[in-house]
Amino acid sequence: MRTVTPAADQFALTVEQISNVVVRPDLTLTQVPAPSRLAPFALALTAAPTDVDSDEFSGRFVLLHDPDGVEEWGGTFRAVIFARAKLEADLLNDDLVREVAWSWISESTSLLEISEIGGTVTSNFGQSFGTLADRPADGFVEVRSSWTPTEDESGAPRDNLGSHLTAWINVLVCAGGLVPLPEGVAHVAHARRRG
Q1: The model's pTM
Q2: Which one of 22, 68, 145, 148 counts the least CB within 10 Å of its CB?
Q3: What is the pLDDT of residues 52-83, one digit of tens each?
Q4: How far is Cα 25 from Cα 181, in angstroms, rounded to an integer?
């Protein structure tokens, strides 16, 4: 008979909270293998446009849990996000594109109870020359960030951790230039696991 530890119970509750998040119908989330060396408990999801022919944006959400806590995290949970999106031609040389991209993180996490937030924004663009000069300039912006959910006296996160997934989805909405929509009907619980 398998013994369920309090830490396993806590992480199971967290996964349930994340599974109950309502996801936009134009966004597909897929559960993927989580990194196993970073924490005893982990969950990983990827995101892409529901339109399989679109490669305008993509992303990854990882939730880590170490019941012993990690000094660098300042807690027992850590949310790690990644978002990548193609840049429109008129933004490729804009010096403010990185600041704007970081504002997606700031605004999306503004209502969360978090600490130890950090991240990077990378923008890259290419322009073709010579026989390839007819190709349009193209580029992308990547946003990476992580933060620690604030915990109460019992060590449980103060927020429903589904709200941290929602924050990442909001970053993807901004990065992908998606039109704000009312909540969709597909649930994360229906995400496909790649085998």
Answers
A1: 0.83
A2: 68
A3: 666 788 999 999 999 999 999 999 999 999 99
A4: 9
